[in-house]
Amino acid sequence: MYSTCLFCHASLGANQVIEHLPIGRRLAFDGAQGRLWVVCAKCRRWNLTPIEERWEAIEECERQYRTARVRASTDEIGLARLPEGLELVHIGKPPRAELVARQYVDTFRRRRQRAMIVAGVGAAALVGFGGWVAFAGAAAIIQFSVQMAVSLRPGARAIRFAGPDGKRIVLTAGELSSLEWIPPYAGTPSALRLTRESLFSGRVAKTSFHGEQATRALRPILAQMNRFAGRPAEVQQAADQLNREGDPMADRVERLGDQPRAITTLSVIDRLSFEMSLAERDEQKLLAGELAGLTAAWREAEEIGAIADNLFVPESVTAWLRRQKSNQDRSAS
User: Fold this and answer.
1) Which of 23, 40, 42, 201 has the fewest Cβ atoms within 10 angstroms?
2) Domain around 149
3) H or E segment to which residue 214 belongs
4) Could you tell me if 31 and 79 lie in one domain?
5) Least confident of 5-14, 242-251, 279-288
6) Phi and psi (nearest 5°) for 217?
7) CA gap 29, 92 in Å, rounded
């Protein structure tokens, strides 16, 4: 297998994932047609691999694609990014993506450790002030200690996020119970509704967040609510729940019903699954932007590949491949 691009002669790079094709940082494969390309990172042209070196590498690419965490796809083409950095382009209807919990375990563990350190420092400060209070017996210091206890207790930190009008909203821990999550309905994505009562006028003000506004608001809210959660067992349960039920941000989940509910009534597993689904959607959007260009490049490369392969492959083999693809399409539908 060549190691430089056939078109611009730049290096194709290397990977440590596909044992039978350690060349390239982006591989495109079509299992039904039996084709495999190495995509040049410099000129973006597709280099067709020799036919005798494809089959084992295609099987490896298929296995790695199925286990990839970050995927974006259309009905014709899919793109996956592996932790090692290798990108795989799946030609044909890609398999259903499943979220892998292990990718989130370290992220949530680090956040939980930071939260515990902050809570520990707050507790130590309270103990110190408590001893001072016992020694001095001053009423002013007692009042100060109580105020510090309230400000440092878990859950008391304010959450700041942008409102629908772009202005910053500061949400205290006590106001979380007035924030409602509205499940998706009939193709409409989930939403948020915040109800606040004015201390002076007595009027109730309701603020609604829809679509991307709700998504942007949910990220800091969930991060704050989940800062002590995210143990490996909890992350695994949340991932299994997402794979089993679908994305609660976009698809109606029967278990959650269709009525608004206070966000504080959601279980830890639900809150973690919400946060994980938002992170997955962010990464999929980044990949989805590349799919249109990849589809056009694939069609051009497929025409060239079909001509090149037909020069060496007997018609009987080509006919068998067409039958295999037809059977695969029927089973997928």
Assistant:
1) 201
2) 101-154
3) helix 212-225
4) yes
5) 279-288
6) -70, -35
7) 9
